[in-house]
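tool_call: predict_structure(chain=1)
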Amino acid sequence: MQRKAVLSLLAFVASFASISATSNRPPAFGDSLPGLTPSQRAAFADGLADFTEVEEVEGGLGPVFNEASCAACHSVPAVGAGSARLEIRFGTLTNDQFDPLGQFGGSLIQDHAIDGFLAESVPAEATIVARRRSTPLFGLGLVDAVPDGDFFLIAAQEAQRNDGTAGRVHMVPDLVHGGTAVGKFGWKAQVPSLKQFAGDAYLNEMGISNPLFQAENCPSGDCQYLEDHNPAPGLNYDGEGAGKLADFMTMRDAPPRAPVRGRADAGEKVFSEIGCSSCHLPTLKSGRSDISALRNRPFHPYSDFLLHDMGSLGDGIVQGDAKGGEIRTAPLWGLRMITTFLHDGRASTLEQAILAHEGQGRAARQRFSALDAKKRADLLEFLKSL
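tool_result:
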């Protein structure tokens, strides 16, 4: 189906992104990877334009959706970052098993609708309601390029510590290559690759069906009404845009680190001493990639990208094999630009976020609480440098 032309302003933004990647200025949030070829920089610029494009009904938007563009949820502090925008998921327990209440459109709420349809709301039958913050998309190409085997090795090394903080790999369906693969993206590590991430976002956040996700979401579970009134039946999109979106995410560089002062160095030692680095692993290394700028590159996400049992800090939602109390370790790079913390944005300060840790994070929280004023200040200074 034909999509509307990208506005000239967006084309200018995309061109600027491509040009700035080759300049000598210091790295900034939202930059492309250093060392891209000219054709790769052009693909990054095309993806940026697609990311910021506002979709319309004629292009397949809806019938229910969350926002009409990717940038509406991923814009702070730069296009493609995160935001305080929350999505809502719901469900209930039936015979002690999680039920996403698919007959009511669950588990994901789409809170906008095109003309002729009603936006979704949480049904009275839901006993579990969870909110999730939009996450930053920096550096994800590096994460995508880490071999699956490395995550199994990390999980095994954590288990060998026998300290109660070992994470586990989430194996999920791989819609791009078939079979299963390691989940790395999303709050429940429920998505294995950026290509699948892009297709999922097109359908579930904007209502645009595509080759990886061909079935439209039935508004509030009413598939008959959708069949009778869908203004764009059939496959909305041939996948070109999802491919561009995946290119954009793949070729975004990691967020730049703030200047590190003495207290931040001391704070990183405290971070390790109290056990934060048990899950927030400082360094990973990418493996093979068709993009040389991603190949065999150490990077510093401060995450193991594994599932951890967070006890009461979990959101109660089951996705794939991820249990209600499990959450993927949130990467801490770019932390200084985030204004609300934890999966549901409940914490407005770093101290609140740390003190909310439960389950496998409880011991580190208790050690944080026991720190003297200087060590606590050093730790917070380190976190604010990320």
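agent: The CA atoms of residues 89 and 108 lie 4 Å apart. Proceeding to next step.
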